[in-house]
Amino acid sequence: MTNQFLKKGSLIAISIIAFAILAGHSVGSQGREKAAERSNFGIAIHGGAGVIVRQNLTPELEQEYRTKLTEAISAGYDVLRNNGKSLDAVEAAIRILEDSPLFNAGKGAVFTHEGTIELDASVMDGQTLKAGAIASVKHVKNPIGLARLVMERSPHVMLVGDGAEAFAKEQGITVVSQEYFFTEKRWKQLQEILEKEKKARDSSDRKNLNALPSEEIDGRHGTVGCVALDKFGNLAAGTSTGGMTNKRFGRVGDSPIIGAGTYANNATCALSATGDGEYFIRAAVGHDVSALIEYRGLSVQAAADAVIAKVGALGGSGGVIAIDKEGRIAMSYNSPGMYRAYIDGAGKAVVKIFKE
Amino acid sequence: MTNQFLKKGSLIAISIIAFAILAGHSVGSQGREKAAERSNFGIAIHGGAGVIVRQNLTPELEQEYRTKLTEAISAGYDVLRNNGKSLDAVEAAIRILEDSPLFNAGKGAVFTHEGTIELDASVMDGQTLKAGAIASVKHVKNPIGLARLVMERSPHVMLVGDGAEAFAKEQGITVVSQEYFFTEKRWKQLQEILEKEKKARDSSDRKNLNALPSEEIDGRHGTVGCVALDKFGNLAAGTSTGGMTNKRFGRVGDSPIIGAGTYANNATCALSATGDGEYFIRAAVGHDVSALIEYRGLSVQAAADAVIAKVGALGGSGGVIAIDKEGRIAMSYNSPGMYRAYIDGAGKAVVKIFKE
Question: Cα(first)–Cα(last) distance of chain A, in Å?
Answer without folding.
Answer: 54
